[in-house]
Design brief:
- The chain is an alpha/beta fold and 197 residues long.
- It has 2 domains: 119 residues, 2-Layer Sandwich (Nucleotidyltransferase, domain 5), CATH 3.30.420.40; 61 residues, no CATH class.
- The protein has 3 helices and 9 strands, in the order E-E-E-H-E-E-E-H-E-H-E-E.
- The strands form 3 sheets. A 5-stranded mixed beta sheet has the order 3-2-1-4-7. A two-stranded antiparallel sheet has the order 5-6.
- Helix 1 crosses helix 2.
């Protein structure tokens, strides 16, 4: 049976990770996400192995195999030292600071697939913002700003062409650590994982 072209998306959140896929024509393989605990407390190697295992399970549950996978996109929370390398994150253990998540996940994918698999890493807020902007903008010529609160604050500014404000560190629209006036927070200060209000 010839291979089918599938592109995997992994959302590596601080607490929960999700896997989904699209066919080469951009239609969804399934509308059901595979969700698993991120297990970040086990460290970076445990986490990336868990992502690769989740992809294997997702493929199997949808009648697919690694031979069908043409590429993988990984959405991760910031901040970053440089492309694919985490900085000190308030919602991940300190063992993640300086971890090259691009190289680590690429190796885990290659082990499962038995060949190198193209991998792109991006800020989760920016990647989500690009997808949301397609829906929110519709046929209008407009930029879109997205704020997505979770265990952190995902943010994105997507320009009129559909590209996110990214920068060299893939965190160009990182707004999670900007101070907010308390009157906007229902007079209850929100304390970030970094310890700041």
């Amino acid at each position: 049976m010839p291979a089918r072209e599938v592109f995997i998306g992994t959302d590596g959140g601080a607490t929960t990770s999700k896997v989904a896929a699209v066919w080469s024509n951009e239609s969804a393989v399934s509308t059901k996400l595979l969700q698993r605990p991120t297990n970040s407390e086990g460290g970076p190697a445990v986490m990336v192995a868990g992502w690769a295992d989740a992809v294997t399970d997702y493929l199997k549950s949808n009648g697919l195999g690694w031979e069908d996978v043409r590429g993988v996109g990984l959405a991760i929370p910031g901040p970053y030292e440089r492309y694919g390398v985490w900085g000190k994150s308030p919602n991940l253990p300190s063992s993640f600071a300086g971890f090259d998540v691009h190289t680590g996940y690429a190796r885990a994918l290659e082990q499962r697939a038995g060949r190198p698999v193209p991998l792109v890493v991006g800020n989760d807020g920016n990647m989500g913002g690009v997808a949301e902007a397609q829906r929110a903008r519709g046929t209008h010529d407009a930029s879109v700003m997205m704020l997505a609160p979770g265990s952190g604050l995902g943010c994105a500014f997507v320009d009129r062409t559909g590209l996110p404000l990214d920068g060299d560190t893939i965190s160009g629209m990182e707004a999670a650590h900007m101070p907010a006036p308390l009157h906007l927070l229902d007079a209850r200060p929100y304390t970030c994982g970094c310890g700041r209000t």
